[in-house]
Amino acid sequence: MSTSVFIARLIGPVMLVIGLAVLANQSAFRDMAEEFLASRALLFLSGLLRLCAPAYVMQTGRTMLKRPHFITAAAAIWVVAGSLFCLFGLLH
């Protein structure tokens, strides 16, 4: 089994479950995202762009969370991507 197929089989189901969980509990995930954006320590520990430009990430995150359908759209993208990874992992 090639590495890419292994990664697709590993990540696909995780992405699919995360997307479905977000769709089922949108208000809880919105609250969690707001708490995350309020914590500079979590932003610092979560990586790359957040480390270099935390103010930009916080502003962008708050702007996204103000949009009423942002959580639904993000969850749908996770479900579609997870489904595709699962499908490609199974076909190869």
Characterize the structure shown.
The chain is mainly alpha-helical and 92 residues long. The protein has one domain. The chain contains six helices and no strands. The longest helix has 22 residues.
- What gap, in angstroms, lies between the N and C termini? 8 Å
Strand/helix succession: HHHHHH
Overall geometry comes to globular
Total individual domains: 1
Tell me the strand percentage band: under 5%
Major β-sheet profile: none
The average pLDDT is 91
Number of extended strands? 0
Q: What percent of residues adopt helix (DSSP H or I)?
A: over 70%
* Annotation field: number of helices: 6
Helix-strand makeup class:
mainly alpha
Rg measurement, Å: 15 Å
Low-confidence regions = none
List keywords for this structure.
mainly alpha, 92 residues, globular, 88% helix
Walk me through the topology.
Layout: H1 3-24, H2 26-38, H3 40-45, H4 48-52, H5 54-66, H6 70-91
Helix pairs in contact: 1-6, 2-5
